[in-house]
Amino acid sequence: MTDEAMEFCATQRDVGDGAAGATATFPYDRMTVERFRKAFPRARWRDDLGAWFVPGTRAERRLTKWMSREWSGVLAYADQRGRDAFTFEPITSPYLEVADDFLVRTPYSPTVIAELREVPWARWDPVLKAWRVPFRSFEQLNRRWPAIEAAARMAEPEERRKRQESRRASPEHADRRAEAAERRRNRYPVPEDAPPPLDRVLMTHAGCVVFEAVTGELADPLIAARFYPGVTAEPAALIWAAWRRPSHADLVQAWPARTPPGPAELARGWWQPTIEVLREERRRAASLERARETRRAKRGDPPSSEQNS
What we know:
It is a single chain. By secondary structure, the chain is α+β, with helices and mostly antiparallel strands. It folds into three domains: about 5-85; about 90-155, no CATH class; about 185-295, no CATH class. It contains eleven helices and 13 strands. The protein has helices spanning about 30-40, 60-90, 110-115, 140-155, 155-170, 170-185, 220-225, 250-255, 265-270, 275-300, 305-309, and strands at about 10-15, 20-25, 45, 50-55, 95-100, 100-105, 125, 130-135, 185-190, 200-205, 205-220, 240-245, 270. The chain has a five-stranded antiparallel sheet. It has a four-stranded antiparallel sheet with strand order 1-2-4-3, covered by helices on one side. Helix 3 (about 110-115) runs antiparallel to helix 4 (about 140-155). The protein is elongated, with a radius of gyration of 33 Å. The two termini are about 65 Å apart.
């Protein structure tokens, strides 16, 4: 019987034949059953209840007291067994300390947290800023330790710095930075002969937007081809249009398209969103606005004008 499977339960019952008493359930173990029968010689196994029945008006109180003692003994035995196993096959790691129990200290890592949550009896100690794991859980801890230690080493500041420098040196990182810089300009290429309507919620290859102005400035073909490859409205020239992200109120008032966009609408780069797209955008916008208001409330700022409107 493993320590994580060990569980006792005592319940007061009226079995219907006028006999007062309580039932006891616990995982089968021959030595535990022998100790139970010695403590409660009048106990009988009841197939109809799937439990041991102990008669008497004070049966539940007696069972609870016995189970408390038994449980303490089981845990003490499991802890000693874990100590012996650790002595025979110790874990040597800078992330593990041994005291009254195991103390696991690692840099923050979601993988480490997920692994330790799967270890029975493991708990976070906010005072020590460490995970405490009793000796009785050594088998499970030992089984998961390779993954815990590997994730902890990957979370070390030096390792994170090396990975960050490696990412920065990659061509993909330069491309992502260039794309982010272009997005911050809040501009979008549109065909000169098919400009979008202003102040309406529209869908584009860059997401849901509201166009505020068509500047008339010619878009550089190389920039348009690199960052907006979906817009291919030839032979018309492409010009820049300024945009903003729609608010939740804008999205609620937007009228959906009856049909998905066709090839011509996709080529010109903007189209009317369908109801499915609007629903998803409304959900996202509402979530962002709630988060924004929560941050304002924590700072003590007044509500935004959108919230007051």
